Please model this.
Amino acid sequence: MLKPGDRGELVATVKATLHRLGFLDVVTEEFDARTAEAIRAFQQARGLSVSGVVDLPTEKALEEARWKLGDRSLRIQEPTMRGDDVASLQARLVEMGFNPGRVDGIYGALTESAVKDFQKSVGIVADGVCGPGTVISLMRLLRTVTGGAPVELRAQADRAKRGPALADKIIVLDPSPRSEISNLTFDLAAKIEGRLIALGVSVILTRGAELSPTEAERISFANSVNADLVISIGIDNYKNDKAHGVSTYFYGSDQHGVHSLVGERFATLVQREICARTDLANNRTHAKTWDLLRLTKAPTIRLELGYITNPKDANRLSDPTFRDTVAEGIVIAIQRLFLSAEEDAKTGTLRIEDLRRAGIRN
Model:
């Protein structure tokens, strides 16, 4: 981790990248106040946690940010190619009606398939490698051919097609294993699990009561079960005990002009239901590019349910009845995600008993 006061070649490399990206105008080997300000601006622009220090996610984002489309040939390889050039390629393919999957800056099988489809359409060798010839063809056609956002539209259509019944849904609950909150998050996940099972949902937890898998392990597990939704449950902390309130996060990047439409809608529903049913402060929903949101295939949200470092929030979260209220709000938000506008109800008013009216349960 690089922080204010550090010096050396690595600091100079980071500052050179920030300079190329337009966040910094002077490059030296010292991590000074201007560097910290530039890092915060970069983190804000990339949907990262804003800290002003170069942590591992920021280091990865800086590495990806240095690549522009055309700088290198893009292909399937190990380690997987990641970068802004991949995201630019994916965004261009989406605009022209091809399906590279989520615009996530990762050159995977779907992106390779979309490149091959594009190459076939313009009469060049369909090898799935985005080299100079493919880039030139993309640039020539981009201004004249547009398609839409097939990935997100397809996700919404699939959600509508499957209907409001929860009995055929698979939902992954990801309670944070962080030591000071693991018991609370696991208990809340268990409360949600019980309610969902009663509605016929297949529920899978990413960990047991005594387990602490890594984030990468939890992402891999969630991707292996073909989930309809993934809900990560956390409780925030901050050095100032005045920080309080609930926030919900979904995958999105203003830098690449992409948001998970289903994820954003679900995050909004969860945030509204919890704030309508409790006295937790509303810290709103936010688009982020955290690996948990970016690499999980299913629509995913991260719920930060108050601050464990705030006495009032911590007291509320320690109350089992309060956690019951939160659990019911989350279950109702899940149902509202799959209900049509005609079947939906006002925020904070729908109850689990009301689901019978929509034919959700017997």
About this structure: Confidence is low (pLDDT under 50) at residues 356-362. The longest helix spans residues 320-338. The CA atoms of residues 75 and 141 lie 21 Å apart. The radius of gyration is 22 Å.
